[in-house]
Request: fold
Amino acid sequence: MTIQDRIRNRIKGRGRGAVFTPKDFLDLGRRAAVDQSLSRMVKDGTIRRLRRGVYDFPKKHPRLGVLSPDGDAVARALVGDAPLQLSGAAAANALGLSTQVPARTIYYSDRSFKDVPVGNRVISVRKASPRQLAGARRPSGPVLQALRYLGKDRVDDGVVSTLRDRLSQPVKDDLEAYAEMTADPEVMRYIADGRTQSYPEARAWVEGCIAQQADIGYSRYAVVLKESGNLIGFCGFAEFNGDLDFGWRLERRSWHKGDQAGGRRMELRLGMIDLPLSDR
Reply:
């Protein structure tokens, strides 16, 4: 089987609508051979070149013909495993908080990429700060971006209701995990008066973090396991009576594994370099 056959099989295995770059096939052969194979498949109509180095296996509609690729799929193909976050305007539109459809959909990542034209739109991936990437890979990410874009003066009961109605199951799962953690007496033993939280109190705390993010641009953030995406705690900044506080909390199963020290280092990096909070 030739390298082109192996690439073709992998593409078809991913299904129509898949977007990819040559780096997705470098385990099958050298870059020059991969580029040549992809070029041949463009010529025979198997795949489509969106721009140099970016391709898709286009979906086809019986009446509409060849469809444009999904913007999220294009951006994800560009960044690979790097963090990816919708910009505020795009997130607000995706969440139903804005009727404006931007001609240029902007995503944030840890570095920039050349724009990709997709139909009558343009997909842009721009380098962003850690603050702008807060919540990347999490369902809360677009919410944080949309709230920052709207600003606190435009976040009314209607916005809160829309977000509540559109909460995805992963967000609800996060709330369930947080509520379970704060109902554990051992976790809460040395927190304030040591009292555990009820479910309504846990929900109010999470909603308070979202409100603080919209108001001042930082808050407590979810700590998740990279392997599973499951919530295991939180880590971040908060304000109490005008004083800045940074803290963390982990479920008991994650204790004694080094996560808290890593979280403190990340908080200090966010606070002193990006926010910045060095004068506080």
Notes: The chain has three domains: 3-64, 71-127, 168-274. The mean pLDDT is 82. The two ends are 63 Å apart (CA to CA).
